[in-house]
Amino acid sequence: MASPLNTLTLFLLLPLLTTTITAATLPVKSTTQLNSNSILIALLDSRYTEVSELVEKALVLQTLEQAVTIHNITIFAPTNEALEHDLDPTFKHFLLEPRNLRSLQSLLLHHIVPTRVGVSLWPNQNTIHNTLSDDPLHLSGSETVKFVNSAEVVVANDVVRNDGIIHGIGRILIPKSVQQEFNKRRSLRAISAVKPEGAPEVDPRTNRLRRPAPPVRVGSPPVLPIYSAMAPGPSLAPAPAPGPGGPHHHFDGESQVKDFIHTLLQYGGYNEMADILVNLTNLATEMGKLVSEGYVLTVLAPNDEALAKLTTDQLAEPGAPEKIMYYHIVPEYQTEESMYNAVRRFGKIQYDTLHMPHKVVAQEADGSVKFGDGEDTAYLFDPDIFIDGRISVQGIDGVLFPSSVDKNSKATENAKTVNSVPKPRRGKLREVACGVLASIGQDATFTACHHI
Q1: CA angle, 183 as apex, 180 and 185 as ends, to 5°?
Q2: Which of 11, 159, 168, 354 has the fewest Cβ atoms surrounding its Cβ within 10 A?
Q3: By CB neighbour count within 10 A (0-12 exposed, 13-18 middle, 19+ buried), where does 246 fall?
Q4: What pLDDT score was predicted for residue 167?
Q5: Which candidate, 307, 302, 319, 305, places its Cα nearest to that of 372?
């Protein structure tokens, strides 16, 4: 049986033991900071400026900082010439697209080995080394020439620090995963647009098909126009439209709209447009349902500078933000190339908008595409911000408004027709005769010549 003294001692030590166990189980946050002599600082300040810019754009600095605190790393940095001149421009454009951020991150991490590999430790035979990405590297060479995969090391031990080393290589290293993703995008397998087909005849009175439509194949466009699928009010969700989407979910419109809004935010300069679509209006949800039903859309997105010029009067009318945005949405799939080729070939092009019955005019100007006709015009400023075969986003530098010139001109012509009184027409023979009499000074004797 325990004595009262032992029981009292155990009671006093119990809080101390609980505090010790709790402190031992809590995770300790790492407060390690990069030293000014770190290999990452040396990389950012080195002559490999192209690699440094890609590291900052890919947002991998935090990942590299964690790797440096754990491992002694080796960086294979391509030279500026390899990235500027030897890299395929199409592939470089693919890497710099905001939606391909993961591919850019995988490519950069593929150049970093979490072990220190100096010239003295370079293997003579082909050896495999893991990288910070999922794809390994093959190191080989001799005493005079050394290779990383098929890239030759042009400057060995270029930068040496205690926590890592940098070797300069003559070409960029492309992992298989990034190459496969690039080939997939280039072959348009993932973004192939649906081939348009003729819609069956629709009764305009009942808005129904006159005869039963044949079975709709998966991926085919909807049978009704996009205006039949839109809601009657601008603030309501769109009505269900017959098409390949809906319950079958052949198209995931919500995910596609979410992707293009995230792309607007990452691209920069279009935060106001994304805020209007998501918060100020219900257009993001409506666009997602339209795309799910099989429709395609082209969004002419004004940048932040253009939207900042909107006045309070322009937004005070009920439904004004929805009407403005509807006028910037074209129910077609257009890219920079297709629109520019159209205006080059036909001059002026009128595109239908979701703001019926108004149309937006496009024409060539200064080697680009200019939208609008009149005072409110905008140029194609940031082309192909987002293109996935269903939704196309084209950045413009102004806000477009429906033109009222045609209505005013027609009203003016009608007013002139009503108010004008036709002047009585005199005979041509009488005018000639009176002219002859006036030449000899005898026109005053004829009263008929006084009215001419």
Answers
A1: 110
A2: 11
A3: middle
A4: 92
A5: 302
Residue 184: how many other CB atoms lie within 10 Å = 12
Identity of residue 136: P
Handedness of CA 251, 254, 255, 258 (dihedral sign): positive
Gyration radius (Cα) of the chain, Å: 36
Confidence of residue 214 (pLDDT cuts 50, 70, 90): low
Give the number of other CB atoms < 10 A from CB of residue 296.
21
For the record, the structure tokens of 202 come out as 């629709």
Is the pLDDT at 264 greater than 80? The verdict is yes
Buried b (16+ CB within 10 A) or exposed e, 54-66: bbeebebeebbee
Two structure tokens written together for 8 = 């009292």
Mean pLDDT of 209-220: 64
Cα torsion angle, 81, 97, 298, 376, sign: negative
Confidence label for 404 from pLDDT (cuts 50, 70 and 90)? low
Average pLDDT over residues 396-406: 77
Per-residue pLDDT tens for 134-177?
889 989 888 788 899 888 899 888 889 888 999 999 889 989 88
